[in-house]
Write a structure and sequence with these properties.
mainly alpha; MetI-like fold; 2 domains; two-stranded antiparallel sheet; 2 strands; about 75% helix; flat
């Protein structure tokens, strides 16, 4: 009996050794790759997963920077449902998304089509169109505020005066201020969208356009039946990224309007900032953040189902 046990133990160790040697050999061959991946995973854990869990926990607390925090259950969540400023900020964010996403996609695609023509001067236009992207947002926002200032010496009001239109209070008008902020974001981001579409256009085989020309297809038919369908993966990516960016808009409201006038430019992220760092209500701000996360997740899934799908050449 003892001899049988020893035999089984020996066979188990014998089977285990080759597996252990394979693991060691694999680690030696790909040590650098595993090291890089582990660094990325550790970074993701520290700066993504742990803050995500911590934010969820904070949403159930009355957190205090000084003093003892206490558990308040669903009070932050229930307060959010009866907060009129929350609904106002959410509505402003939805409007901003409508004003911003589609025009940015259209303008970026038009610019990409313009620079895609085989012309020796396209390099200059690439630099000009992309310049707002690499310029500091504070600088661009300052210029934008100067253009749309309410005073008569503002550039926008100066051109309106040429057509005998009275000066407008762009950033002080509750109906116009959000449109001005959306225009700023379009001006800032259109260059990067142009680059994405330009890369997508370069991936489309020229043979498809040549075959279409042989069949007598016009420029519009080639665009709607070849270019646009084959840019679907690029459009999906850009749509998701610009939508996420629109729901996270903060800097333009902070720099140009301060959320006013009368909360007309208070976006959800700006409201989260006010609750967290102005009123020191981290628990309530955390609950707002999770609602924002859920909204972005749902919209991204809907975009994937609506626009998604692999492009096919046949």
């Amino acid at each position: 009996m003892a001899r049988e046990i020893k035999t089984e133990a020996y066979s188990f160790n014998a089977n285990k050794r080759p597996l252990f040697k394979k693991i060691l050999r694999e680690l030696k061959l790909n040590l650098f790759s595993y090291l890089i991946v582990s660094i990325v995973l550790i970074h993701f854990l520290i700066f993504k997963i742990i803050p995500f869990i911590g934010t969820f926990v904070l949403s159930f607390l009355d957190y205090r920077f000084i003093g003892k925090s206490k558990f308040i259950g669903l009070k932050n969540w229930s307060e959010m449902l009866s907060d009129p400023v929350f609904y106002k900020s959410l509505w402003n964010t939805l409007l901003f998304t409508i004003y911003y996403v589609l025009p940015t996609l259209v303008l970026g695609l038009i610019l990409a089509l313009l620079i895609n023509y085989k012309n020796k001067n396209t390099t200059i236009f690439k630099i000009v169109y992309f310049l707002p992207v690499v310029t500091s947002f504070v600088v661009v926002a300052g210029i934008w505020k100067w253009i749309f200032t309410s005073y008569e010496n503002g550039i926008a009001n100066y051109f309106l005066k040429l057509f005998r239109v009275p000066p407008q209070r762009f950033l002080a008008d509750t109906k116009v201020a959000l449109l001005v902020l959306a225009g700023l974001s379009i001006f800032k981001v259109a260059g990067s969208v142009m680059i994405y579409y330009y890369g997508g256009l370069k991936q489309i085989p020229e043979s498809l356009y040549e075959a279409a020309e042989i069949d007598g297809a016009t420029g519009l038919k080639k665009f709607f039946h070849i270019t646009l369908p084959l840019l679907k993966p690029t459009t999906l990516y850009v749509a998701i990224m610009t939508t996420i960016g629109s729901f996270q808009i903060f800097d333009s409201a902070y720099l140009l309007t301060g959320g006013g006038p009368n909360y007309s430019t208070t976006t959800i992220v700006y409201y989260i900032y006010q609750q967290a760092f102005v009123q020191s209500r981290l628990g309530y701000a955390s609950a707002l953040s999770f609602v924002l996360f859920i909204i972005i997740l749902v919209i991204s899934i809907l975009q994937k189902k609506t626009i998604g799908g692999d492009a096919s050449y046949y």
